[in-house]
Amino acid sequence: MTVSLNQQIDEVKRELAKRDEVYPRQVQTGKLRQSIADFQVERMRAVLKTLEWLQAHEQQIKIMMTEGT
Length: 69
What we know:
The chain has one domain. The protein is mainly alpha-helical. It is elongated. It has helices at 5-28, 34-56, 58-67. The longest helix has 24 residues, at 5-28.
């Protein structure tokens, strides 16, 4: 199965929204340290930023890849 960039971006956004919902409770109950929650959210935001960059440059990347073959 192929997962498009749009679908990947949507999934990362969904995951970030879920973390925004779940992490505060986990921090409050002591199941998760705030520093770890912050770090994990920042990593997921970095994934989103990378995917959005790839999406913005998708056509140029495809051209470069076909020129290299």
